[in-house]
Amino acid sequence: MKLATLKNGKRDGQLVVVSRDLRLCQAVPAIAATLQAALDDWDHAAPQLERVYAALNAGEAAGAQPFDEAACHSPLPRAYQWADGSAYINHVELVRKARNAEVPASFYTDPLMYQGGSDSFVGPRDPIYALSEEWGIDLEAEVAVVTGDVPMGAAPEVAARAIRLVMLVNDVSLRNLIPNELAKGFGFFQSKPASAFSPVAVTPDELGADWQDDKLRLPLNVDLNGKPFGRPNAGEDMTFSFAQLVAHAARTRELGAGTIIGSGTVSNKQGSLHGSSVENGGVGYCCLAEVRMYETIEGGAPKTPFLKFGDSVRIAMRDAAGNSIFGTIDQVVRHYGEKGQA
Amino acid sequence: MKLATLKNGKRDGQLVVVSRDLRLCQAVPAIAATLQAALDDWDHAAPQLERVYAALNAGEAAGAQPFDEAACHSPLPRAYQWADGSAYINHVELVRKARNAEVPASFYTDPLMYQGGSDSFVGPRDPIYALSEEWGIDLEAEVAVVTGDVPMGAAPEVAARAIRLVMLVNDVSLRNLIPNELAKGFGFFQSKPASAFSPVAVTPDELGADWQDDKLRLPLNVDLNGKPFGRPNAGEDMTFSFAQLVAHAARTRELGAGTIIGSGTVSNKQGSLHGSSVENGGVGYCCLAEVRMYETIEGGAPKTPFLKFGDSVRIAMRDAAGNSIFGTIDQVVRHYGEKGQA
Fold this sequence. Notes:
The structure is a homodimer of 342-residue chains.
Chain A (H helix, E strand, L loop, with lengths): L1 E5 L7 E5 L5 E4 L7 H6 L1 H16 L7 E2 L5 E2 L8 E4 L3 H10 L14 E4 L11 E3 L6 E2 L2 E7 L8 H6 L1 E8 L2 E2 L3 H7 L11 E2 L2 E3 L8 E2 L2 E2 L3 E5 L2 E4 L11 H8 L10 E3 L25 H12 L12 E6 L11 E7 L7
Parallel strand pairs in A: 6-19, 8-21
Antiparallel strand pairs in A: 1-2, 1-5, 1-14, 2-3, 3-4, 6-7, 9-12, 10-11, 10-19, 11-13, 15-16, 17-18, 17-20, 20-21
Helix pairs in contact in A: 3-7
């Protein structure tokens, strides 16, 4: 089934069930007012939500309303946990290669993961706010899962069964702040502002054969200022599955229901800068840092700038029939001073 | 005023107002069912909660019940953000000195802060669960604040006004996992399991003159297996105030109501190992790592072991009259396999 959260002036918004074709939705206050409430009591809520979903798809839902992606907040407008992996090692290999460093062997068996801020996500159509372009604003197009409760030390098989929902995410990074933050050794902190998630979150069964071995085997569509920028397949070159990432997160602690675990920037192995961009027949990139690394490896220095105020980012995914699965993340970079002045 | 959360079988527990002397409490479902709900609507809820607090202290609260610290969860059993600073640079200086490294000059002006897991805190009397003693289980006794909404780029003066509550925390660390995690560059992730907070959270005004310049100027009492282990003053040698720490967290992103910001391990400057322990007339330590660093500096290697299953940790703070302000964190280290078998 498909779920979304409509903005309603409250911090957690209103949970709605969305039809498979993203045309209709229905509020379900009698089942759960918010997505977190549904996740807190999933075994009880999910079968009821599934019945509403079936009725919506059959055109038999009495309370159906038109679904408007632009009215959505992120499915979880705020969450109790957002931990982001770095499962596409190609991305890490490029970072290292750009500075002539080796990738440690352990990186292929022990996932990289950082704890992110989850107190105030932005909506999929909200601006990316920053106080300065000098921060080096970059997109990162990723896939993420939402879990139920996971016990400490859960094996990947146990973790796999705790995956409740799948969604897309733009994990914005402030590239020029990262070196100083990482040098301090405590993680990305100031270099990771608020993320935005796709309008719709879907259960893994909804993805059919495209959800295989706990990976989502479809191309991720990333457009930059209206032009194709990335089309990599999220199921290729993913060194760690979502089951492995969730198990990694739970190694020394329980995970609470509503925990979001990200894949890290989707990245497919490509031979070189020439031929890697969509324009040149490649699958392109899911972040500007990656094209800048290719440029550095081939030309000694990056050429492509980071995002400027006014730049736009679109992230979506289509099934084999060409239908949007999660709706579209569509954000424009704005100065934070403009917030509330619209 | 003083607030606490009683365990009631639900994930967020039940908010109660607690009398100043910690003897009485009253549930306030008509004002706010949970502490997060009160924080979400603080300007509306706080004056009503204050009236209940005044009635409790005057012995005039109709619904007053005995307050039992052992029935408490952490004030926020789960939170949307937990970010922990490292404001007592003495602790960092010792770490570096133990490995013959310099403290970078920037550390005195740019706070260290990491993003912690906030999805499932444990209660103040709950066990510290781990799967192995080999993880190097350590306590970290700290002070923490809970904020309201904070705008991006807030100055320290603005951040100060957003501090809603003060509490104590045991930020458990898995010392033997830290080197590998920090070497990966993405922060502490697996080396920071669930934290526990004091039974009671208090508004800054409740602390009177002991809350000065956004620091809490009282000794923190830490006992290990029933013996005094630390008595450092939390207001001394704190390089960054809570206003500065909150502003640091908000530099590139908004903070949502209910954000918890920690001080880092409280640590006072002391001359040497001899004379620094409580037994030898010093103020002692708030974590085992610190005494091990003194031992390393003076003797070439640590002698004091990390926590073993069965070890106990108590953390509390008393006002000038000797009264407990926050109640007591009192935890025993247990194997996670014992959970649910009590």
